[in-house]
Amino acid sequence: MSTADVIRQMLVNFNLATESGVWRAFTAFLPEDPDSAICVYDTAGRKDGRIMATGEQITHPGIQIIVRGRDYLLTHTRTQDIALALDAQVKTVVAVPGVGSYIVHNVSRTGDIMPLGMEMEGDRRRHFFAINALVTIEETV
User: How much is the pTM?
Assistant: First the structure.
């Protein structure tokens, strides 16, 4: 299970994304439809050293969340809501149906919300925003 899958499920659990319809959530691939959609990607993480007693490497996986929508203000507001929810996460248990449970200990954004511009195709105009973050996550047993 990828970190992006877990964060996607967490956004659905928090009603910031949906399984279908408006603000539908995807992992690793953002299809052409629907116009208002969210996609979570796995990105480069950060190694944080190792535990001296065991030699275990500590790594924080990276994620990027892309939010796309037709209306600039609504899309920016949805992105901001997601960013604020990520900032508030502390030891959140996320159950991924059919897979297992994970504890999201922390999500640390690596910067502000990043506007990516507008895509224009015919009369279709869609705005894009990105959130980049590092995650501290653990699979439960």
Answer: 0.92
